[in-house]
Fold this protein.
Amino acid sequence: GMITQKRRSRSTRSVLENTLEVPNTRTVRYGDRSFTKAAPYLWNKLPATLRNENSLEIFKRKLKTYLFVNSY
């Protein structure tokens, strides 16, 4: 798929962080702004408490709060 979960060769705490693989791109101008690169990059910047939320409704509420608090 376009987005893949980061795989670890050994068991570490980072496995529990639910991070995504950020692919390398050839061009900064277009490649770094593509969904395939931007989405995992932004996802990985979210706090682990958000990335590991199981409920969509709770995730959306926490995300809204996080974005609001960090925009001001």
